[in-house]
Write a structure and sequence with these properties.
Length: 204
């Protein structure tokens, strides 16, 4: 009975995660705004949407919250998904650069009149900083690595969520809001759990 219950719980967990990841992407694919967009712009946009979806996956992998992907296996996949996240962010920026270099330059220099651009650039630099930090992880003390990585993850999530919520584009509003809420909730919970775990039980 316990085995069957665990399997059922695992299936429900994966089904819920799949829905959370795929529904916003599918809703964006049905957006009427796509009819007036260039292919490069569409590809850049969906790279950003996919990156946003991966932000939900990352804390769950790091915290061992996915059935069958706990421990070292989950952390290994977490690193691979992190590399994919970096690639998607670069594709997102490169596609926007191809369609409008002046807008990207203004955004990178924080001169853009659109508030969402600044938040996106903050998230971009935090993603690149996290990737650079991961390359030199073995040269850092574990405590320094954990604190720096967690801090950057918080910046990435905050910047990405505000960036996404401020944009009125191809993403459907309610599925976007739902995804952003899940990303924030998962990140905060896992960060808090890891903090408590590292501190250990309090002494009486």
């Amino acid at each position: 009975m316990r085995t069957a219950s665990r399997r059922t719980a695992a299936l429900l967990t994966w089904a819920a995660l799949a829905a959370a990841l795929l529904v916003p992407v599918a809703a964006a694919a049905l957006s009427p705004l796509l009819a007036w967009r260039q292919p490069v712009y569409i590809a850049a946009g969906f790279a950003g949407i996919a990156a946003m979806a991966l932000l939900l996956l990352q804390p769950l992998l790091a915290g061992g919250g996915l059935p069958g992907l706990s421990g070292a296996r989950g952390r290994r996949i977490h690193r691979r998904v992190g590399a994919l996240l970096v690639a998607l962010v670069l594709i997102h920026v490169a596609g926007l650069w191809i369609t409008s270099p002046p807008d990207v330059i203004d955004a990178l220099l924080f001169r853009s009149p659109t508030p969402f651009s600044a938040w996106g650039v903050v998230a971009l630099w935090a993603v690149l900083a996290a990737a650079l930090l991961a390359l030199f992880r073995h040269r850092l003390r574990p405590r320094v690595w954990r604190r720096a990585h967690t801090a950057l993850a918080m910046v990435i999530v905050t910047g990405s969520v505000v960036h996404a919520l401020l944009i009125e584009g191809t993403m459907e509003t309610w599925s976007k809001v739902g995804l952003c809420m899940l990303v924030v909730a998962a990140t905060v919970k896992v960060a808090a759990d890891l903090l408590v775990r590292k501190r250990g039980p309090r002494r009486a």
